[in-house]
């Protein structure tokens, strides 16, 4: 299957990079804050990478500043969100989680992600 035909499956995991040195994004207990799963001004979706299309090193980009967390694509769909493959230059695994983002959704995403033990 070519990348233009690639689809995100409900079995996929979506990787989100989170700044771990900044207290606004990581709580004292090491879990991500809901702000790590909030759309910033001008964004039309939450930026993630499809795990099976990348590797952790490429997805994390800078392990001195970021950690990776995984969300199940099936879970984001259960919340009424859409998972859309959105390849960008240099990252064919890039995708967006799109939909009605509000505080409740951001909290649920933060509470239901899994920390990737990398590096």
Key phrases:
119 residues; 3 helices; 6 strands
Q: Please give the domain count.
A: 1
Q: State the secondary-structure class.
A: alpha+beta
Span from first to last CA?
30 Å
Low-confidence parts: none
The number of helices is 3
Gist of the model:
With 119 residues, this protein is an alpha+beta fold. The protein has 3 helices and 6 strands; from the N terminus they run ββαβαββαβ. It has one domain.
Set down the secondary structure blueprint.
Elements: E1 13-19, E2 46-50, H1 56-60, E3 66-72, H2 73-78, E4 82-85, E5 94-98, H3 103-111, E6 114-115
Antiparallel strand pairs: 1-2, 1-3, 2-5, 3-6, 4-5
What does this structure look like?
It is globular and about 40 Å long. The protein has helices at 56-60, 73-78, 103-111, and strands at 13-19, 46-50, 66-72, 82-85, 94-98, 114-115. 17% of the residues lie in helices and 25% in strands. The chain contains three helices and six strands. The chain has one domain (14-115). A hairpin with an 8-residue loop joins β4 (82-85) and β5 (94-98).
């Amino acid at each position: 299957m070519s990348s233009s035909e690639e689809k995100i499956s409900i079995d996929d995991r979506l990787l989100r990079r989170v700044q771990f040195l900044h207290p606004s994004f990581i709580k004292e207990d090491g879990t991500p804050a809901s702000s790590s799963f909030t759309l910033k001004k001008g964004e039309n979706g939450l930026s993630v990478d499809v795990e099976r299309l990348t590797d952790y090193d490429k997805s994390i980009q800078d392990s001195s500043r970021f950690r990776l967390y995984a969300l199940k694509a099936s879970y984001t769909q259960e919340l009424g969100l859409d998972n859309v493959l959105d390849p960008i230059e240099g990252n064919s695994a890039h995708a967006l989680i799109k939909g009605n983002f509000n505080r409740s959704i951001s909290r649920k995403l933060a509470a239901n992600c899994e920390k990737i033990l990398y590096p």
